[in-house]
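I have been asked to look over a protein record a colleague put together. What it holds is a sequence and that sequence's fold in token form. Please read both lines and tell me whether the tokens look consistent with the sequence. I do not need a full report, just your reasoning and any doubts. This is what I was given:
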Amino acid sequence: MRFKLTIMTNSHFKKNINLLIIGLSGCGKSTQAHKIAKKYQLTHFSMGELLRQEIKRKTVVGIRAQKIISQGKWAPDEIVLPILFKALEKIDFKNFIIDGFPRLVDQAVAMDKRLQTIPSNIDLVIHMQITATEVLKRRQDRGDAFQSVDREDNSPQAIAQKELSYRQSIKPILDYYSQTKKLFEVDAKPPIEDIFEDISKKINLLIKNKN
């Protein structure tokens, strides 16, 4: 399992802080999650990376996930949730940031129910806002080859279709977290450091209120 747990020493982090960061693939959520984890001493999990590890190890779950993903579908809850919960158990479901989860509102509900048994909870859900066209332009400008655990087709048509599917699935998730006042929308188009500054201000306020 490729994640790093840093022992907290700063008095600001006496409270349990659990974050989610979501957005269209290529929006920069993994980059921001890494920076957030480093600054606030959180364990960073990437849902895509957790799935890739299962596939690489050729576990029963990994083989099934690869078959589903290769068809252009998202891995179902019965695959995603056990993998994620197993990883979170290693850190007692505390002080983490997860990128790329949830993808369906049922996953959000399942996460909250699981955390209630700890007891714990999600404190903030960061939504990186960007369009598929902007993601494609960003990658073309950098000369990147788009690679993802859940997408092999890099054509503009495929990316547009993925955005449509994403928009349809993300609305119920955003509505769900909006109702609990945990949603934070951030523009993913500015430079990385500008985005990080905006997110940091929100997290700092969260920490202040918890302390």
Remarks:
- The longest strand covers residues 18-23.
